[in-house]
Design goal:
Blueprint (H helix, E strand, L loop, with lengths): L22 E4 L3 E4 L7 E7 L4 H17 L4 E7 L5
Parallel strand pairs: 3-4
Antiparallel strand pairs: 1-2
Length: about 80
């Protein structure tokens, strides 16, 4: 059983369950669906250009992605900036 102390305030009912389906508009490839990545490990990162900690963590995400993408690791970045 994984250590769930850090998520105890949110409950553990989602551990071992599938994530809910959602779709997003991609800036590169049209629409993407979470189901497009079935069987992969997906990190969903909510960020914004006006958020210094968000920008600071990007190089680390790139490093992890470069090391693990060949093993099925995906990062989906969801920008919280307003659409221009």
């Amino acid at each position: 059983m994984p250590n769930t102390n850090f998520i105890s305030q949110y409950g553990t009912e989602y551990i071992g369950k599938s994530a809910p389906q959602f779709s997003l508009q991609s800036i590169k490839s049209g629409k993407i669906n979470l189901t497009d990545y079935k069987g992969k490990v997906v990190l969903i990162n909510f960020w914004a250009t006006w958020c210094p900690p968000c920008r600071a963590e990007i190089p680390g995400f790139i490093d992890v992605y470069d090391k693990l993408s060949n093993k099925g690791f995906i990062i989906i970045g969801i920008a919280l900036d307003k659409k221009i």
